[in-house]
């Protein structure tokens, strides 16, 4: 998509303040709250900006609204087009519906179903084209030219960046003590807007961008790197292969450093926010916490603001992350028993596990598919436990009772 032709200095504090005034009553002023538990775990004061509380569960509707609120009457009548993996699509579709503006949204074929369904629910025409954002983008460009539609770019547009910058105005008003912000980066529109606003008000404030290790184009641009992009990431909202032409100069000016986080770290952060803060975030929304957990020493003693940029995650993916997290923490474990193949043995194993406080989740009783001798059987059980220490104690107790048992996973 081609960005709006405008100099980067058009993204100014005045423009961001004007955007905030324009958005009053149109988007949610989300809370920015202190997390006592995360602060203790990370060794710094942690404040969470809950952009997943927006109506479309993402910050994207700020920039989308600010851009669309400035359409001419002719542009509004002809309609708008956006290309998005999901969150920008929902923001554009939602506000287009409210404004009575026709909206066409082009999304990759493998965009999360929850984001596709929500976008359609807002009345937009949704076209699923290509396997990647870049393939969808090319189709969107051609379609916009063919139909005479106004492009609403997801990040490389000064009005969009100004809208996103309103987050910084809110955070610094809500928590004046903040001295560091950790912000996820896809194309760079969010952090560009935040950087302009934050440094206009607080030049000493440190800004860090966070990218998924599998999609590091902004890291490459700012660090003269040549890391390749992967095929997919749990942080699909920031899986952008090409940063913005307008955003990169602003990022160079305002960002202290870009940090990369791997998939395991993002999954862990999603689960921690769910368990500790009782809030659902998508992969991109958890990237800041993932970086903070990985870089505790860098941020020790600071007052750190994390932007939870969105909460649109597929329920099945969230369920899988929870399941994997339980396995990694030892709260869900697979045990293998080598037992005599006689009546009542399975009941004895179940009884022993119950006495030790394990709750059986799954059982497999193998005779034929086993290398054991014919008079013995193999029982595999998946059990819920209280954690790694409980598992270790349980294994010791079982072995002392004479069971041949090992931990499989």
Keywords:
single chain; disordered N terminus; 17 helices; six-stranded mixed beta sheet; 409 residues; Alpha-Beta Plaits; Rossmann fold; alpha/beta
Through-space gap between termini = 46 Å
CATH overall fold name of the largest domain: Rossmann fold
Helix content: 40-55%
Radius of gyration: 25 Å
Please state the average pLDDT score. 92
Q: Could you give the count of β-strands? A: 14
CATH domain class of the largest domain? Alpha Beta
Total helical segments:
17
Structural class: alpha/beta
CATH architecture label of the largest domain: 3-Layer(aba) Sandwich
Overall form: elongated
Number of folding domains?
3
Low-pLDDT segments: 1-6
**Strand-residue fraction?**
15-25%
Draw up the topology in text.
Elements: H1 13-23, E1 32-35, H2 36-42, E2 45-50, H3 60-68, H4 73-78, E3 80-83, H5 87-99, E4 103-107, H6 113-121, E5 125-128, H7 133-147, E6 150-151, H8 158-174, E7 180-184, H9 189-201, E8 206-212, H10 217-223, H11 247-254, E9 257-261, H12 263-277, H13 283-294, H14 296-299, E10 303-308, H15 315-328, E11 332-340, H16 345-355, E12 359-366, E13 376-384, H17 388-400, E14 404-407
Helix pairs in contact: 1-8, 3-5, 3-8, 5-6, 8-9, 9-11, 12-13, 12-15
Describe the 3D structure:
The protein has three domains: 8-60 and 157-324, Rossmann fold, CATH 3.40.50; 62-151, Rossmann fold, CATH 3.40.50; 329-407, 2-Layer Sandwich (Alpha-Beta Plaits), CATH 3.30.70. The radius of gyration is 25 Å and the shape is elongated. α3 (60-68) packs parallel to α5 (87-99) and α3 (60-68) packs across α8. Mean pLDDT is 92; it is low at 1-6. Helices cover 45% and strands 19% of the residues. By secondary structure, the chain is of the alpha/beta class. The protein has helices at residues 13-23, 36-42, 60-68, 73-78, 87-99, 113-121, 133-147, 158-174, 189-201, 217-223, 247-254, 263-277, 283-294, 296-299, 315-328, 345-355, 388-400, and strands at residues 32-35, 45-50, 80-83, 103-107, 125-128, 150-151, 180-184, 206-212, 257-261, 303-308, 332-340, 359-366, 376-384, 404-407. The longest helix has 17 residues, at 158-174. It contains 17 helices and 14 strands. A six-stranded mixed beta sheet has the order 1-2-10-7-8-9, with helices on both faces. Strands 5-4-3-6 form a four-stranded parallel beta sheet, with helices on both faces. Strands 12-13-11-14 form a four-stranded antiparallel beta sheet.
């Amino acid at each position: 998509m081609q960005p709006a032709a405008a100099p980067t200095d058009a993204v100014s504090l005045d423009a961001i303040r004007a955007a905030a005034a324009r958005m009053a009553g149109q988007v949610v002023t989300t809370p920015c709250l202190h997390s006592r538990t995360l602060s203790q775990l990370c060794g710094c004061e942690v404040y969470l900006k809950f952009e997943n509380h927006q109506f479309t569960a993402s910050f994207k509707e700020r920039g989308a609204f600010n851009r669309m609120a400035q359409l001419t009457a002719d542009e509004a009548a002809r309609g708008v087009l956006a290309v998005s993996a999901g969150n920008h699509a929902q923001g554009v579709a939602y506000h287009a519906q409210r404004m009575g503006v026709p909206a066409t949204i082009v999304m990759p074929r493998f965009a999360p179903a929850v984001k596709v369904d929500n976008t359609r629910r807002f009345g937009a025409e949704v076209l699923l084209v290509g396997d990647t954002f870049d393939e969808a983008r090319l189709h969107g460009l051609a379609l916009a030219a063919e139909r005479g539609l106004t492009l609403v770019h997801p990040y490389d547009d000064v009005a969009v960046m100004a809208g996103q910058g309103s987050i910084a105005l809110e955070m610094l008003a809500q928590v004046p003590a903040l001295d560091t912000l950790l912000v996820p980066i896809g194309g760079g529109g969010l952090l560009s807007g935040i950087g302009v606003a934050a440094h206009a008000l607080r030049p000493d404030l440190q800004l860090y961008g966070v990218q998924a290790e599998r999609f590091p184009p902004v890291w490459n641009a700012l660090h003269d790197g040549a890391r390749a992009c992967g095929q997919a990431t749990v942080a699909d909202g920031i899986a952008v292969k090409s940063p913005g032409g307008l955003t990169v100069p602003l990022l160079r000016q305002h960002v202290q450093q870009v940090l990369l986080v791997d998939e395991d770290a993002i999954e862990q952060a999603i689960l921690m926010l769910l368990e500790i803060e009782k809030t659902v975030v998508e992969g991109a929304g958890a990237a800041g916490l993932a970086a903070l957990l990985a870089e505790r020493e860098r941020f020790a003693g600071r007052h750190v603001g994390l932007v939870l940029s969105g909460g649109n995650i597929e329920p099945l993916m969230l369920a899988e992350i929870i399941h994997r997290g339980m396995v990694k923490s030892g709260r869900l474990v697979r045990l293998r028993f080598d037992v005599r193949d006689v009546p009542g043995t399975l009941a004895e194993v179940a009884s022993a596990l119950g006495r030790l406080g394990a709750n059986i989740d799954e059982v497999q009783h193998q005779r034929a598919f086993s290398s054991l001798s014919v008079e013995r059987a193999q029982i595999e059980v998946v059990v819920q436990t209280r954690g790694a220490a409980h598992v270790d104690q349980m294994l010791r107790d079982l072995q002392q009772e004479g069971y041949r048992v090992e931990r499989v996973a």
